[in-house]
Amino acid sequence: MEALLVNYVEKSLEQYMRRNAVFLCERLYAEFPSEVNLQLLARCYLNNNQPHSAYYVLKGMQMAQSRYLFAIACLEMDLFCEAEAALLPVKDLCAEVCDHLLEVPNGAVQYLLGIIYRDTDRKNKSIEHFRKTLSIDPLFWAAYEQLCMLGEAEEAAVCFGDATVPCVQEHYLGNASSCLLIADTDHSSDSSQRFGLEYLSRSHLKQREGNNIRDICENNHGGPILTGAVRQSKNSCCSTSFSSTPSPVPTQISDVAPPPLVRNIHLCQSEDSLRSSTQARRKFACDNESAQIRGSLFFDSGLRRSARLAAGQRSLNTSQGSENKAKSLHASTKLSSETCSSTFCQGKLMETYEVAVSELETYEVAVSEFGATSSSLSSTTDVKSIQHEIENTKLSSFISDSATIKSGISDTMKLLRTLGEGYRHLCMFRCKEALNVYQKLSSKQYNTGWIPSQVGKAYFELVDYLNADYAFSLVRQISPYNLEEMDVYSTVLYHLKQDMKLKYLAQEIILVDRFAPQTWCAIGNCYSLQKDHESALKSFQRAVQLNSRFAYAHTLSGHEYVIMEDYGKGVECYQTSLHVDARHYNSWYGLGMIYLRQEKFEFAEHHFRQAYQINPLSSVIMYYLGTTLEALKRSEEALEMMEKAIVIDNKNPLPKYSKAKLLVTLGKLNEALEILEELKECTPRESCIYALMGAIYKRNKKYDKAMLHFGIALDLKPSIVDVAKIEAAIEKLIIPDEMEESL
């Protein structure tokens, strides 16, 4: 009963029937309470999104697998201290894990510790553990992703370079070659290997130290002999995944180990010997009743049915002698079945019948493949010679497959190098370099949803909203179910003032997942664009409720508070965002804007500089930092910052205008006039440009041109404050330097 329930729980998990798995596993643990069954129950709870249930059932457990699952449950519940205590010390935890129930490699433990330290503001320890994760497993992309987000990732050529290929090869090929070598040994020389299936079927109940039915059947860690048998049974005398040569191991699935191939090839075996062999097998099966039941659960009955059907189809073409042999086997089994009084024994005899039919199948295949040399197999020397040839063929095939695997590993590492380098550039806000790297990818990889979303984010950081819109539109076409970076896409549409498109996006993604924070950020941006700031704020706060560690939702809430001129709550939102992600430069920028409006220029400079250190390629941050320096009367530093902003983004008119103002302040009127003439061509409807040009002409005593530009500035309908300044300048054209001081 226990093995039956374990098997069905595992099947339910594989089929994503989570509720069924939870129900059956609760029955299992009630009937057979043990820590191993408790671990399986915790896995069911975690898969069913019940981390609190897993937490309570595993609390106080000491086995390594229990501690690992307990740590995962704690992380889901943000109980970082308890999660850390469960995982430490790492060496002891990983040393205890010798499992089939749940693999807990050292890399996974290191990664979880890195997450814990990241979320508890221990950045250096977090970086250390993420790097350890990559050194253990170079394919652990999530660890490299975390290092990139922390701004501490090494170049992708180092983390995914050629030096890491041997590590992956050792991890991948080491297990495979070990499995092949053990599976190809002489089964007749070791009785424990000959009965390996029975031994492994018992181990689940006898040892109960993490053995899992599913892993025993599918994972080569469960036992090399079992793995070889299962693979051969699936392919029916075909090769394993490393060979195309038939193995000398018979392809039957039973708790009783198959006899050597030589025994099946003897053509002179009599009916009496077959009957005695069948009776001996029946006796062995009855003596090991519980092992037989568990063994029957390890393997899909479909394999046995397909084997019988295949044997039946082949028997139509066999010789009369083979038919007689099959009939005698059937008669022997039928006679034995009549003498058995219990239903269970009848089932066991059916198993015996299946074993006999499988022997006959092996016999027929062997005759067909070795028909040319069957007469020479009576001698032990010939048999060993053939087996030696088979082993040599398998070895050469394994070497060929190993070369293919190495080539595949190299290609995988090359792909990760490209993806890693692009992602690292993007996290360091070197967006143009990131775009160049992503362009190197093949069309198969580029059109996967994740890549266009990163491209769209890169264009967003470059303030190229049109190209960002195009990239995100491609994401919606390729994978409309993908919500990653959709919060950024909604901000792109907000800046482009595309109200209808933003509404459509919000409607689409709310149908995909109404419980995703990206969904509510898009809804909030939609309300904000319609000037409904109260509803927008509620939407952003809903996103925070769904995921308190979603930094961008906190930042957008802060923006809404600033628009509503509630600076105190805006500061709280920005600070919360920085507590979640200290590299979220948008929050540093938001705090700087609040202090700039409050004319707290020293505080504003500090926060703008923090944002500038994180993203040194943002012309917007440079512009506001330069504006703050100008307010602090540090004109030379401000001018230098404006020039950097112009170099970064020559299309941004704000740094150019500010540079012209600074040049006027420094008395460089002609240089300022040149910049304003250029701006007039780019943005001809900005009244402030004409007003400043009028002030320059006034200082140069060109009053006609000054009056002309002041008039144009008034015609462009400036703000009320600017109108008053321009009218005052016109009235006092003959009074020098009045306008310059007011502008």
Automatic annotation (TrEMBL):
InterPro entries (alphabetical): TPR-like_helical_dom_sf (IPR011990), TPR_rpt (IPR019734)
SUPFAM superfamilies documented for this protein: TPR-like
Keywords: Cell cycle, Cell division, Mitosis, Nucleus, Repeat, TPR repeat
Start and stop residues of the TPR repeats: 107-140, 517-550, 585-618, 619-652, 687-720
Family to which the UniProt record says this protein belongs: Belongs to the APC3/CDC27 family.
PANTHER family: CELL DIVISION CYCLE 16,23,27, CELL DIVISION CYCLE PROTEIN 27 HOMOLOG B-LIKE
Designated name of the protein: Cdc23 domain-containing protein
Species of the source: Gossypium mustelinum (Cotton)
